[in-house]
Design goal:
CATH architecture: 3-Layer(aba) Sandwich
CATH superfamily: P-loop containing nucleotide triphosphate hydrolases
Number of domains: 1
Oligomer: single chain
Helix content: 25-40%
Shape: globular
Radius of gyration: 19 Å
Structural class: alpha/beta
CATH topology: Rossmann fold
Distance between the termini: 40 Å
Strand content: 5-15%
CATH class: Alpha Beta
Number of helices: 8
Number of strands: 6
Amino acid sequence: MFQKRSKPPPASPKLLHRDWRKIPTWEKDDYLQYIQDYQPEEKELEHLRILLHGPSNAGKSSFFNSVETSLRGRMTAQAIAGVGHESFTVKYQTHKIQKGKPGTFYPFVFNDIMGLEKDESKGICVDDIKLAMNGHVKDGYVFNSQSSFTSANQHYNNSPTLNDQTHVLVCVVSASTVSIMSDDLMKKMREVRLAARDLGIPQMAILTKIDEACPEVQSDLENVYRSKFVKNMIEKLSASLGIPLNCIFPVKNYHYEICREDEIEKLILMALKQMIDFGEDFVNNFDKSCRSA
């Protein structure tokens, strides 16, 4: 059921002698087939909605682009990603992924939002994330760091349906910044987590830029689950936000590459499968609770 390494680990004190997490034997094509076959059990649901949030420049847009690249079989850049310390995403937008011929899409979508900042006058307002989770924010809304979204805005959705609401909340954090995130920023992230908890929304975290933060992973991506550094960063993130360890996935986004790589996509698709499974469980439980109310 779990994958065994075909080669011994490199001789490095920064690597463990065995994987610290057991890896399924699935290959990339197995994940692709699972995702391609997925259809929501709830027939009235158009799509699962996955909301990406986290600090600015953590790789939220790049993660979506990496997912789309993995599923479409070519390099893509639907979500405009930037380089720098401030958030490049300023508008609320739903990203669909084409499946097969034009006009057909996978039954899940991603919402990428402005990043969180430690400074109160910068980044997205926490209340805006809460409203997005509840389905009150329509596509096209331009985030304002100085003031929260209100019902007076033309992009306010007064009557959100199950399709508008968030079904999975994914916190995206860079492996190179976990240890230096400020208390103010962590406080905002915990506030978002508690709001999602109160709504019953399942939560995950994605640890990005593992190759930039760990030389052993940069030299060989297969070292990700033997890296002491990656393991420590996941444990630190879990302790800081209260997200269970098995809900945190290390990934490498496409960054400087111009060709697709199986090892990158396997980590991406492994995380995506978990998002789909969590979202499906939430929708089914939500639907049952509504029918029994």
